[in-house]
Design brief:
Length: 295
């Protein structure tokens, strides 16, 4: 199981550009819709500044350049923090006000126009984030479909069957853990360990229903050894993905590392989610092949 899981991860890195392509497409759609909104709003604000100040020498390019300088001055080595600042309404207000304040003008007259501009920018940022998330999620499911087709293909009716069984068993497991925790708080450590074991059993049981029902003895699939192997290979795959991301960050920078890391981590999680199915399907295939040979 361990060798098979690691091999599946390395082999399916060939789909590296699938999640990145979907994410890039989301970025392009987000920018194509959000950017014109921002530019139009800033242009309208500048027209109002020119009208109030009667200074026809003020250029739209200078306003945009000032805002870009402020954005560029953020710490993009820490992209999460930089994005949180960029999405902060107070920072946006201070930035645009600061770019306009260089002009000798009564800012009180522009307050409502600046607020309107900020509202438009916030809407544009939300649209951009929506399409980025859509690209991220879409890329994940497309990549998962491609990988599943290779290592753990199953019929549509089996998908719905497993989804039902998974929901039922997962809800039962969560309810059981909460019940134990309510009875005895220190049981959180015990319930966590039990949950991990049961979760591994659930993954193998679901895989057994789909790929090995009445083909393989259930004890050959669901046992302590296989559960331990399943967790070990999952940990190894995740560790390899994290190391690869760390190497990319060390060679380039944090922003590029996180962008590339999206594909590496996505593929790792997909393989982790399919490891049990891939293993059980392989076992069932071997048993079926031996049966056919003996016949």
């Amino acid at each position: 199981m361990i060798k098979q899981g690691l091999k599946n991860y390395v082999k399916n890195l060939k789909y590296f550009f699938t999640p990145l392509g979907a994410l890039a497409l989301g970025v392009v759609f987000g920018l194509s819709i959000g950017l014109p909104i921002v530019l139009k709003s800033l242009s309208d604000l500048l027209d109002m500044v020119v009208q109030i100040s009667q200074n026809t020498q003020i250029r739209f390019q200078d306003l945009i350049a000032g805002i870009i300088d402020k954005v560029d001055s953020l710490d993009w080595d820490n992209p999460i923090k930089a994005l949180s600042i960029l999405l902060d309404r107070t920072w946006l207000t201070d930035t645009i006000s600061g770019c306009v304040e260089s002009i000798s003008i009564d800012m009180a007259q522009l307050e409502s126009y600046i607020n309107g501009c900020i509202d438009d920018i916030v809407v544009a940022l939300r649209i951009f984030i929506f399409f980025v998330i859509l690209g991220f999620v879409g890329g994940y499911f497309i990549t998962k479909w491609l990988i599943r087709r290779e290592i753990a293909k199953r019929a549509l009716w089996k998908y719905f069957l497993v989804s039902f069984v998974d929901s039922l068993l997962s809800a039962t497991l969560v309810s059981f853990c909460l019940w134990i925790l309510a009875l005895w708080r220190p049981s959180i450590f015990i319930s966590t360990l039990v949950s991990m074991m049961l979760f591994g059993s659930i993954q193998l049981f679901e895989a057994y229903i789909v790929h090995a029902w009445k083909k393989v003895d259930i004890k050959k699939v669901i046992n302590v050894k296989n559960i331990a192997k399943l967790y070990l290979v999952d940990i190894l795959i995740f560790a390899i993905a994290v190391v690869l991301v760390g190497i990319v960050i060390a060679i380039t920078n944090t922003l590029v590392g996180l962008f590339v890391g999206i594909a590496l981590i996505e593929i790792a999680f997909i393989i982790i989610g399919l490891n049990a199915e891939a293993y059980v399907k392989n076992v069932a295939g071997i048993v079926e092949e031996k049966t056919n040979v003996s016949i």
